[in-house]
Each structure stands twice: as C-alpha cells, then as structure tokens.
Amino acid sequence: MSRPGYPYFKAVVRSRTSPTLALQVVQARAGLSALTEVGLALRELRRAEGLSQRALATRLGVSKSMIGRLEKDPSQVPLGKVLAALEPTGYTLRLASAQGSTVSSAHWTGADLIAKDLG
C-alpha cells in the first residue's frame, strides 16, 4: 500500500486543523454586533478616503487611540462619541423591534423621555 505524496498529506492535515477562509467569514458574520459594525463602517470610510487613523482622528477632533478603539472594540467607548464618529460615514444607529420596525423618538412618552430613573 503506497502512502500519499507530501503535498497531498500537507493539504489534508491543513484542512483538518484550520478552518477554511469561507468558514471563518461565515462565523465572523454570525458574531457581528452593532458595535462591531460601527468599527467596520469607520474603517471602511477611512480606507475609502485613503486616511490614516491619525488623519481621521484629526478630522473628527478625537485622538488616534480613540479611532483605534472605535475600529477594534467600540463597546468601551461612550455612546455619544460612537455616534459622533459614525456620523460622517453615512450610517446611523437605530433601535428596531425584533420584527425589524424602527423605533422613533415619537414612540416614547414625554415622561419616559425626561425620567432620570429608568428602573
């Protein structure tokens, strides 16, 4: 019985030990959060305009490290800063019901809007 050649064996081992690129993309898409998509939108804007993180930071009036945090993990950035940084991308964050309908500010009562204790 002959053994398979080295290139074949290497390809079989590689496919068993590391996922394919397609599988990695599917898994990454499944795990996207809204905040992760904010980071992707900012990176897309920056790259489309040929800007460095520093140049985009200057344009938005924030630090370079803030741009880095927004692109990598905006979950630790205050929401106001996330929204301000997202503005020039043409994207917005919106609250939607599980059925997909967008919730507007008209949905909330005046008392809800001015309440200090939301508990």
General description of the model:
It contains 7 helices and no strands. The chain has 119 residues and is mostly helical. It has a single domain, classed as 434 Repressor (Amino-terminal Domain) (Orthogonal Bundle), CATH 1.10.260. The longest helix is centred in the middle third of the chain and has 15 residues. It is globular, with a radius of gyration of 22 Å. The N terminus is likely disordered.
Keywords:
119 residues; mainly alpha; 434 Repressor (Amino-terminal Domain); 7 helices; globular; disordered N terminus
Q: What is the CATH superfamily label?
A: lambda repressor-like DNA-binding domains
Q: How many structural domains in the coordinates?
A: 1
Question: How far is the first residue's CA from the last residue's CA?
Answer: 73 Å
- The average pLDDT value, as a whole number, equals 78
C-alpha Rg (nearest Å) = 22 Å
Largest sheet, if any? none
**Tally of separate helices:** 7
SS-based class = mainly alpha
The count of DSSP E runs of length 2 or more, i.e. the number of strands, is 0
